[in-house]
Amino acid sequence: MKFVKPFNSSIYLFLIVVAGVLSGCNYDARLFKKAKQNFELGEYEWTIREVKPLAQRNYRAKETNYFVAESYRLSNRIQYATPFYLIAKEKGYDDKNINLHLAYAAKANGKYADARKYLKEFIDSKPSRELVVKAEIELENLPAVEEYSKKPSPVKIQGLVGNTNQAEFGPIKIGDELILTSSKKPLIYKNNGLPFLGLYKARLKSPGEIEKLELFSANLLDANANEGTPAFSKDGNTMVFARGNSGKSKDPSPDVDLYISTKRDGNWSTPERLAISDSIGWDGSPAFSRDGKTLYFSSNRRGGKGGLDLYRAPMDNSGRFGRPINLGSTINTRGNELFPYVSEDGKLYFSSDGHPSLGGLDLFVASRSGDEIQIEHLGVPINSVGDDFGLFLADSTQGYFSSNRVGGKGDDDIYYFESTGSEDRWWSNEIMISESGEAAKVALYHLRTQIVNERNKPIAKAKVGIKRNGEIQPVQFSNAEGYLDIIDLNPADQISFNASKEKYLTKRSEFLMDGREIPKQLLKKELTDTTFDHKITLGLAEVGEELGALFDVNPIYYDLDKSNIRPDAAAELDKIVQVLKDNPGVSIELGSHTDARASASYNLKLSQRRADSAVKYIIEHGIEASRIKAKGYGETQLINGCSDGVDCSEEAHQENRRTEFKITDLND
Q1: Cα–Cα distance for residue pair 341/361, rounded to 1 Å
Q2: Tens digit of pLDDT for each residue in 75-119?
Q3: Do 359 and 107 touch, CB atoms closer than 8 A?
Q4: DSSP assignment, residue 538?
Q5: Partner residues linked to 488 by β-bridges
Q6: Model pTM score
Q7: Does the pLDDT at position 496 exceed 90?
Q8: Residue 534 in contact with residue 447, Cβ under 8 Å?
Q9: Where does the OmpA-like domain lie (predicted)?
């Protein structure tokens, strides 16, 4: 009989355990890879669901916790992000902005002392000047925020009976109905895990209670897009609303745009995109003026003050809208302003996280006194540490607003409020911040400019030309520490610099006072002395360097299967023209690319047409043809994973349809 080795059960069990561990590791690795792909596609709720269990199992802890925290932040739920950011920070995740995110998360939870601590740590880490200014403004706002948290509104509020566990917001009362936005569509929006938003209506049983929601109009429904925040003209026959965020690659509006519909014979027409919408920006939360001749809305289009700004566009008698106009730096900030609403008495109500706010978005009112616009915070309980927005006044003593504060039924809820005061209006000017009877408070501003290299080391004897509000100032030379003479500033100053030094590329830079002036209500002393630091970084002139990084020039982008120069691309090419005029010895290559759709041979030709088109634009603006080379690379240099056969969003494909700029030659 052939010898058979005895069965060893302990070895068998050991092998089973090892196999299980290896299988589990492979499963976690696959799950992590899938979660990263979801994150890159903006599917933040799916990322949280996949990555949070990995974080709890301590798998790649610093990365998984960071992805959970970022997913909460980017899906507007930063109040849940704190513990995950803290673990990622403790484990050494390399993101210099974590302390800034932690500050916003602390503020969103009403923990202002923690917010102050994280803001100071962030500023001490020496981030970019833009982020320093943002953090400094938040830090300066905190004393006012703490005062606002104790400031009562003359109202009582209640959650609307009829709110669900989904999102309801943006109420408008018409007759005995409430028109609102709700996440009730069958399909799920992967950014936040809620159903897509749509327009709904409900009959009011009482001012604080609604019956069952019904679809507002089947003609306005796009099942695969978010739709909401309608605005109605004075006669009720014209409606403007926001639509977008479908996430589909063929979506002609991959972000959010404004759409218009008119009512004929009781039916709403098929919506059409408004021409004033920015094709590459976010445009939403529209509102008509009381006379119906002006449309207010929020947008992050180029040229704003920062984040989302409020704009107004006039409407003529034929229903056509004129050019949108920014409402200016008294109302708009470096943060976000949205959800405008104009009351019968001409006051503008809006939400902002750039003005001092208790947490996220707070409600404010802007009113005019003579030539001055005054901004008031609406206090508590109207405002909370959550997002408070979408106010509507039913009459002078009652109305509605939206909030995602703690204690609601769903993601966003609608709240009903009514006045508790003896005034016939729910909001009284008597509680405005006033300095009457006090000594005038003055703020002085100064600008300290330093010239540095790419390693942040000072550059001495750099020659700097200066213009102040368009007027040429005396030329300055940087001292041994790279500093120029300090400039005393006025609130409306615009300072332009043109810095040069042998062996370095000449660079222009600008400092604007717009939006930096400290609000009067934040001035605590009779004299506040503030100095702004402004750095100009000069790069060494080297062949092969990308101009984008050296001069803050973005790549230019193209529409699908097109090579024409879009307005946003022209703005970047104008920067390149200026760089080449300032540096006459520099020659460059314009390297153009396509996405992976269509054949490789077709894309190579398309990319060359794009490069030629960009070169033609630069030549037409005064640059010699011998200094510019057009080179098409087709689809050979994709900057993301959107290769052949990969299903990507239009935004992801757009990243690949680009032209970049590289130095090819230097002549004295």
Answers
A1: 15
A2: 888 888 999 999 999 999 989 899 999 999 998 888 989 999 999
A3: yes
A4: P
A5: 446
A6: 0.59
A7: yes
A8: yes
A9: 545-667
